[in-house]
Amino acid sequence: MTDVAGIPTPDKNDENFWTTFSNLVEPPWSEPTQEDTFTMDERVHDAVRALAERISTRALAYRVADKSFDPVLMAAPDVQLALLRALYEAKQSVDRLAESAATVAGRSGANYAQLGAAWGGIKRQSARLKWPHAVVKQSTSESIPLHYAGGTAVVHHDADADAWWYTATAADQQENESEPVHSTYAEAIAGATEFLLAHALPARQPHA
User: Fold this and answer.
1) Residue pair 128/114 in contact by the 8 Å Cβ criterion
2) Edge-to-edge, what's the strand order for the sheet holding 145-148?
3) 153 φ/ψ angles, rounded to the nearest 5 degrees
4) pLDDT tens, residue by residue, 33-63
5) With the C-alpha atoms ordered 129, 131, 135, 137, is the resulting torsion angle positive or negative?
6) Cα–Cα dist 51/86, whole Å
7) How many CA within 13 A on the CB side of residue 172?
8) Mean pLDDT, rounded, of the chain
């Protein structure tokens, strides 16, 4: 297990919070255990099965007939095809979330070697091809949208003020535009993320 005793843990109201926030901790993670991966499989399966039951034609027929959908029906070939379609959507979600995480990490100081290591150990060049906009110079004026918690945020650099600001539209369609008061990209994206999380839609419950 990684020794974390020396890693600073300031509260958000501490004056050195954002400086500490911007410093990349090494190593960034510990390798998942087999138990971790099994737990992940179970949680992904729960989410994917819930979607499969929502989109399955057979499951819809049971709902229309006001009958319960017996778990054994998940083994029906057409329901398994619905599950496969739901798994594809899960893959699309993972790709979107990975792009967002890579962009936040890259624009906050991580390099392509570190992004590649996090993504299963792919090479730096492969990480650059996968996320070409993730790592850029801090002085860039390029604005790249990030998708998080069902919403979208764009972080901008104000060259005149030498500060960062963001615009965001949350999942509930609430909008926010910050002032150019953030000293780093990381601070601005943290503010945007906080706003998007505060206005995320509640999780939908699967159909009975």
Assistant:
1) no
2) 145-148, 151-158, 163-169, 175-177
3) -135, 150
4) 999 999 999 999 999 999 999 999 999 999 9
5) positive
6) 6
7) 11
8) 87
Question: Which tokens in the block code for residue 179?
Answer: 């002032």
Cis preceding-peptide flag for 71 (omega within 30 of 0):
no
The residues, ordered by sequence, that sit 6+ positions from 117 with a Cβ below 8 Å of its Cβ are: none
Q: Model confidence at 170, in pLDDT bands (50, 70, 90)?
A: very high
Q: Decide if 59 contacts 71 (C-beta within 8 A).
A: no
User: What is the chain's percent helix, strand, coil content, to nearest 5?
Assistant: 50, 10, 40
Write down the residue that tokens 């929502």 correspond to: 54
Which residues make Cβ contacts (< 8 Å) with residue 140, sequence separation at least 6? Answer: 157
**Secondary structure (H, E, C), 140-194:** CCCCCEEEECCEEEEEEEECCCCEEEEEEECCCCCEEECCCCECCHHHHHHHHHH
Report the pLDDT value the prediction gives residue 131, as an integer from 0 to 100: 93
The closest alpha carbon to 82, from 58, 65, 64, 63, belongs to 58
